[in-house]
Amino acid sequence: MLPLSLLRAAVDNPILLELKNGDTYNGTLVNCDSYMNMNLKGVICTSRDGSKFWKIEECYVRGMTIKYCRIPNQIIDEVPADEALERPQRSDRGKGRRRGGFGGRDRKGGRGRG
Predict the structure, then answer these.
(1) Are the beta carbons of 43 and 60 closer than 8 angstroms?
(2) Could you identify which of 3, 24, 61, 83 might form a hypothetical disulfide with 46, taking C-beta atoms 3.0 to 4.6 angstroms apart as the criterion?
(3) CA distance 84 to 112
(4) d(CA 43, CA 35)
(5) Sign of dihedral through CA atoms 44, 45, 48, 50?
(6) Distance between CA atoms of 62 and 71, rounded to whole angstroms?
(7) What is the spatial order of strands in the sheet that 24-32 belongs to?
(8) pLDDT tens, position by position, 80-101
(9) For 100, phi and psi rounded to 5 degrees?
(10) What is the pLDDT of residues 8-36, one digit of tens each?
């Protein structure tokens, strides 16, 4: 199961995010992009020490600030099969160099050639 496919299946469901700075955001996932940036609505933000709370109508959380996220267990059953397994494998793997590199008989610039 790929993390992005799991998050995309969790759209319009509750989600809890803990950020690297310790703050938590508890709300409904509206959107998620390929960098794991998320839009949430109906958010309750809790400070690191748990002493302060904020209610935010909508917020944007940058993916690189997220430590972990928690989603409901029933979302896992809704996730489609791994996309990586369904893609056809490339057949040209392991057949040597394709581009670039130095070496060969007609190339200039090897060791001892000037």
Answers:
(1) no
(2) 24
(3) 46
(4) 21
(5) negative
(6) 17
(7) 53-61, 38-46, 24-32, 14-19, 66-70
(8) 665 555 555 666 566 665 666 5
(9) 65, -165
(10) 899 999 999 999 999 999 999 999 999 99
